[in-house]
């Protein structure tokens, strides 16, 4: 890398600056998209940008290979990788589909990359790759795993033991095989650098004294989220240890219905010392009394996640939330009810993001009075002027409500509405919800993510194509009538990156109309739609830069079924642009055309 | 003789009306623990439980609406960790609360991590740092404590009698209580009529 001062005979004035100066200027350009843009200006900028790039985001791990990544960005320090498609969250993707971490770690280690941060989502992580990671990167600081699987607490033990400078170990909603070993013990006594520790998703017992000792020797610890194996007395001790610096706390499951008065008093005392606490989560299987214990500091909270607190009744939730005047982010269960959302609307004027999850997933209560409806949504939209992001599971909706919401909140960036019963119409007029969603896309000019539900015809897609100019991600289920719906979206939404569709009557005509469109997108998912094998084959032929994957129910490959009727409908289609061609690690149930 | 007596009891249970099934099951249990443990009682317990189950099924509310795969779109981690899932104590998700008389705080333990009653005994000892709980599961008679569990129906049963697999499927919580208190609880210590 030539860092000598150079004058470049170029029309751009900036090129009279030495490289280091340009590089310094680029340091202020943080967003990936902006960095990508500046790298395209000219060769010189491309080169400077390459070598100065520290953070890389890869939205689809199969779009590029680790070797090519390292060739382009040899000095990278921080890598984000995403693996399985989004619908894998809903069991629509076979477990062995792919998204393996190991080749990446292998290549990064061999390439001498000084990796410091790794952030993974929906990847298959093995204990071996965690071990290799822990041994290969001396300065490794931060590991964040979201919705990953394939590893055990043995892998965590390697990270704990070998990453001398570990600052962050953040495990969110992963499926981890808990060997109930002593992984917490594996942090050496010399490890004092922890800033963030989140093991809430671990299911097994942990060594409480090891945890307490670890927290005691971590003066920088700001975020601690424990799992449900941490009883009240231990939690109290932990909190007392780092109370003044704690910003983010995840409470495990400790006993709850009637804690002993003395233990409870100690907890209250510890909570009172947590003056920096801004974010609270956990509370799975915890009784209401223990949530009440946090009321004294509730006015400081900006983030509250009670979406796993299934044992806390609506009225207790309401009482607590009422005190959270500075709340910006709220994740809650629908047991809060419309009345509870009205309280949120009147109390939480700073609210920016709301997620309301369904509490009754098994349809056990036919007369579920506590679920939320359009009433709650309208109340929130009216009361919270800063709201820009919503995920809302509800049992019913109306066009009138959606139109009102659109008028109240034109600033939505993310709007995800899930009406629990597929194809459900406006419950008052019995019409489709086309007009309601149409109002949303028309009013919310900055909308980037949208999920639609309920009874919807092609019309809603006409509106989306017409108005959703900034839309990047669209999720469709049980909607539409003909190919025109999908076509309107593909033709209209210029910034579309991810489109995922299930159980909708879109077929080959829509799929094949504009093959070039998929080069501008990250991926397309279609399951239980009308596309056929023949259509997919044609697409694959016309777009060699796409991986067109067909996922089958049964394990036996489709190879032998080549003579299969091309009119056969494809169960699951996942296609994505890639610069490295067909991947070699696909399991038998996946056919890449 | 004893066996013959038990068979009658099984018959009695089957003849019971659905509404009174629960009460009868409890009585059946009480009768049951008066016998010596072993394959006989296991058989009887199975008999009791299965007849109980049959009646129970008849009383269950109508089958839930057919579920579409992956709908509603709640991620699988969240599904597995929502309350309803947890309370239907499935094997592998066998996380139960364990309370011990005289100890102020509850513990939680993962039943799925134990392979059998011996393992459970060991785990309980470790949990409370107290030897002798495990003994209660095994020999019963000489121990100061008894280990009882609350089953799916909300009844309190003596731990150790049913086959392990059946136990972890139905156990919702564990309680270690003093043998002296157990008598007043509606259970009788094992071997009392031997």
From TrEMBL, chain A:
Which residue ranges does the record assign to the F-box domain?
17-58
Per the record, GO CC terms? nucleus; SCF ubiquitin ligase complex
Concerning InterPro entries, the annotation shows: COI1_F-box (IPR041567), F-box_dom (IPR001810), Leu-rich_rpt (IPR001611), Leu-rich_rpt_Cys-con_subtyp (IPR006553), LRR_dom_sf (IPR032675), Transp_inhibit (IPR041101)
Question: Where is the major localization of this protein?
Answer: nucleus
Swiss-Prot/TrEMBL keywords: Auxin signaling pathway, Developmental protein, Nucleus, Ubl conjugation pathway
Compartment(s) where it occurs, according to its Swiss-Prot or TrEMBL record: Nucleus
Task: Give me any GO biological process, just one.
Answer: SCF-dependent proteasomal ubiquitin-dependent protein catabolic process
Q: Does the keyword Nucleus apply?
A: yes
Q: Which Gene3D superfamilies match?
A: 1.20.1280.50, Ribonuclease Inhibitor
- Pathway membership, UniProt: Protein modification; protein ubiquitination
MF GO annotations: auxin binding
The protein here is known as: Protein AUXIN SIGNALING F-BOX 3-like
Q: Which organism is it from?
A: Raphanus sativus (Radish)
Automatic annotation (TrEMBL), chain B:
Give the highest taxon in the source lineage: Eukaryota
Its predominant location is nucleus
Compartments, as annotated in UniProt: Nucleus
* Gene Ontology biological process terms, A to Z: auxin-activated signaling pathway; regulation of DNA-templated transcription
Q: Which UniProt keywords apply?
A: Auxin signaling pathway, Nucleus, Repressor, Transcription, Transcription regulation
Q: What is this protein called?
A: Auxin-responsive protein
- Subunit-structure text: Homodimers and heterodimers.
The organism of origin for this protein: Raphanus sativus (Radish)
Record keyword ATP-binding present? no
